[in-house]
Amino acid sequence: MDTYKGVLVAARQLTENLAPVTLELLGAGRKLANELGEELIILLMGSKTGALGQEAIAYGADKVYTAEDSLLDSYNSDAYTQTAANLCRKILPSVMLLGHTDIGCDLAPRLTAAWEAVWRWIVWC
Fold first, then answer.
1. Nearest to residue 40, comparing CAs of 57, 21, 23?
2. At how many degrees (to 10) do helices 77-91 and 102-115 cross?
3. How far apart are CA 55 and CA 52, in angstroms?
4. For residue 30, how many other CB atoms are within 10 A of its CB?
5. What is the pTM of this model?
6. 2-61 pLDDT, tens per residue?
7. Which of the 8 DSSP states describes residue 103?
């Protein structure tokens, strides 16, 4: 699994700020990334991700990926799955953190199926 690097947090955002669950994931992800000697990466989805990248960096993220599209403003299983799976195929994270929320519980198994990989790394917090 040497090709897999990075701890990826799938962000949940409120209108103008990151959701509390995302801040918790960034804290846990920062600790894990440090232990693994890897980067902490966050994925922001929606049309209003602007300043949220800076907020994520302030909370410990090393790298921010954004998927800016109004289709991602509200949770849509297919759109979120496709967006997150495409990023995972591109960056090959070793660990992915999702919140134990309705969205996280719906998205995690969909991502596993969409990426068609043996994941050792989807974690619900």
1. 57
2. 50
3. 5
4. 17
5. 0.89
6. 688 999 999 877 767 899 999 999 999 999 999 999 999 999 998 888 789 999 999 999
7. H
